[in-house]
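Dear colleague,

Thank you for sharing your sequence with our group. We've completed the structure prediction you requested, and as agreed, I am returning the results in plain text so they can be pasted directly into your records. Please verify that the sequence below matches your submission; if there's any discrepancy, let me know and we will rerun it promptly.
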Amino acid sequence: MFDVDAIRREFPILQTKVHGKDLVYLDSGATAQKPLVVIEKITSLYSSCNANIHRGAHYMSGKVTEEYEQARDTVRDFIGARSTKSIVFTSGATASINLVANSFGSFISYKDEILVSEMEHHSNIVPWQLLCARTGATLKVIPFLDNGEIDMNAYSTLLNSDTKIVAITQASNVLGTMPDLKNIITMAHEVGAKVMVDGCQGIVHSTTDVTDLDCDFYAFSGHKLYAPTGIGVLYGKEELLEEMPPYMGGGDMVARVSFETTTYAALPLKFEAGTSNYIGAIALSEAIKFVKGIDKEGAESHLHSLLTYATTLLSTIDGLTIYGQAEGKCSIISFNIDGVHPYDLALLLDKQGVAVRSGTHCAEPIMKHYSISGSVRASFAIYNTKEEVDMLFKAVEVAVNMLK
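Please find the predicted structure tokens below.
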């Protein structure tokens, strides 16, 4: 059974006081807090078994290498990949997407088109803009409707034989929208395009099976999945990764090096140049095991109830607009209040112990769509409670009375 109180006890930071108030942390969309098992694993590695991987003949190097490769298999199983050869550790989703834009991007020419959705995070926009600037390819935008849903009619019209890449989020970090990925991917494949999925938010809020989705590339960051910062994953279909040239050169990604020629290591090491964040990868594995140990249906029901309850409460506030009301959205609420600047509101919420995000959320095209300069975002995780939603609501009421 899902027990939110038991889960909260696993996160020591939730006992923190902010400005003398109990912390209400509603910014997990930016980064999630870390459970004890992850914190303790990091401490254990650094204090008793820290050595560089893949290079040493001594005990600690071998032990950490074994745990690192076990972590790769844990990730493979978690996202439903067929082979560990498809799992590349990176520094985060941004690095993963840039890897694809640069490496697979070597196959893109000036005649090609790249489609990105209007609701993407900047990390799934800018790398493709840079690729288009290098190659002369054309970037086209898939719009979304005012309720936050992808405009599938527009998407169908934009797709054509020149489309080579479709970049799409699994869940919008602002709107909470979870697009129909299977349909989007199927349609892209019908014209021969490859699909890059940004899974940063989606992997937290839904079960992910990259084999079932049939996506070509999938990226996520560990720090939003209760793991540390500085670790991420790129999944790529094995046959595509085999064809792609390395993104970076250095140690561990080579088989043989001479001044005359260099040959590359087998997958996935071909894309893991230099000293990998092996501590982060192993900690990510611990975070995944933690998540897998939680009642999945109970967690989803809990988050849905928080979203519904928060939406109902906030909607009673005069002048409050919620952006993104797509069916099946994940537990993210972005909103504004008439006459109140989002930064001012977030600052006053913080003074009451409530941590939310304000600004453009690295998604300026969404702000442009709604003709706003920014918004306040509350993002809920498995450790949040209905009582914290009540505290958010009351804090907003207090702040509005002060600002108006």
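Summary note from our side: The mean pLDDT is 97.

Kind regards,
the structure core
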